[in-house]
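yo

u said u wanted the structure for the complex thing, so here. seqs first:
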Amino acid sequence: MNKKYMYSLLAVIVLILLPYVGVEAAGLQVLFGIIIPYLAVLIFIIGFIYRVMDWASSPVPFRIPTTCGQQKSLPWIKQNKIDNPFTTGAVIIRMALEILFFRSLFRNTSIGLNQGPKISYVWEKWLWIVALAFHYSFLTVLIRHLRFFLEPVPVWLQWLEKIDGFFQIGLPGLYMSGAVLLAAVTFLVLRRIYLPQVRYISLAADFLPLFLIISIAITGILMRYFTKVDVVGIKELAMGLASFHPAIPDGIGALFYIHLFLVSILFIYFPFSKLMHMPGVFMSPTRNLPNNTRAKMHINPWNYPVKVHTYDEYEDEFREKMKEAGLPLEKE
Amino acid sequence: MNDKNIIITGLIIFFVFLTFPFWYNLGKASPVPEPKLTDKAKAAKECVEPKEYMKVEHMQILDIWRDGVVREANRVYISKKGKRFNMSLSTGDDSCMGCHSNKAEFCDKCHDYTSVTPYCWDCHIEPPKEKK
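structre next:
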C-alpha cells in the first residue's frame, strides 16, 4: 500500500459518491447538471489563461535549447537540422514532431544490468506507444462528444464516428477510442504502481488525474454499452448548456451525473495540475528556441547599465604619471 | 519576452476551438425530437416491452433478435410479461416496422438528433408504403 495512490483513489471515490448521493437522495440535479458544469468551464478558462500568461511573463532572454544533434557550424560539417534547429522553420518542425508524435518519449531507454555487471541501455517503446494511444484516443473521445453539443451534427463528426466504430462490434457499436483509452490509462496507472523507480517519483498529483480519467472512461462505457441511459434527454441537457438555455430533462440516471461531475472536476482541476503540460509543451524553452547563439547575440534586456572604464580612458587619465614612471604607453 | 503576441494568438485559437459548441449553437433553440407513433402503434398501446425499456434497450433487443433468427432460426420472442411476438424487423405486419411504418418520423428523428447511424438499413429495406 502506498499512501500517495490511496489518497488519490479515496478522493476519486468520494467524488463519485457526491453526485450519486446529491442526485439520488437530495435531488440536486440543477447543481450537478447546470451550476457545476458552467462553473467548471469558467474556472478552466480563467485558470488556463492565468497560468499561461503567468508563464508568458517569465522572460527567456537566452537560448537554452536541449539539442540532440550537430549544431550548425562550418559549411562542410553536416548539421542536424531538426534536432539542433537554427531557424524558426526548423523549430516549428521540431515542435510539431514533439507535440504530434512525442519524439522525446520515443528516445526513452531503460537501463539494466545484462550478463553480470554490464550496464546496457535497451529500447523502451511501451511508454511511447501507450502515451500516443492514450492522448489520441482521448482526443477522439472528446471530439466525439461534440455530437451532444451540436445540432445539426456536422458531417465530419459523423465520419469520425464511422471510422471509430469501423468494426461494427455489438450494438450500440463499439467505439475503438473508448476501449483504447481505458486500456491505455490503465497501463499508465499500473506503470506508476508496479515499476519501483516510477512509483518512487510518483505523487498523489500524478495518480489523481489518472484515476479521474479511468472513472470517467468507465462511467462513459457503462452508459453506452451496459446500463444504458436516455441519450435524447442527455443531448437535450447538453444542448441547453451549450445554447445558454439550461434545463434539466426528466429521467436521466445518476450514472450520467457522476460522469458529468467527474468531467467537471477534471476541468476545474486542470489549471491547477500537471495537466497543464498541454499548453506547457508549446512553451518549453528547451525545445522551442533555435540554437543560434553562435550566430546571433542575445542581450539580456534588463542588464544593469554597467559603468566601464576602458584602457584608453585609463591611459588618458594617468598619462603623465605613467610617463614619469617610465611605463609603456599605447599613445604618446 | 517578445513572445507574448504569439502566446496570446495561440490562446485565442485554442479557446475558439474549445468554445466551438457555444458559438455554433448561438441563438438557436434546438427543438427536442418527439418520435411520432402511427395509429396502429398507438392502438397497440405497448411495444414488446414497456416504453422506457424500449427507449434505451431497443438496439440490444434487435441485436439479440438478429442473432437468434439468423443463427438459431428462432422467430419467437417471449416478452417479460409472457406475451409472444414475431421476431422480425421489416417483414410483414407483425414486425417492428409493420407497426412503426413511419421510419422518417419514428426511427430517424432521434437517430439524427443524436447522430446515430444504425446499419439496420444497410440490409433491410423500409417496407413500401403503398401496400396499405
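Residues 98 and 104 of chain A are 7 Å apart (CA to CA). The longest helix of chain A spans residues 29-56.
cya
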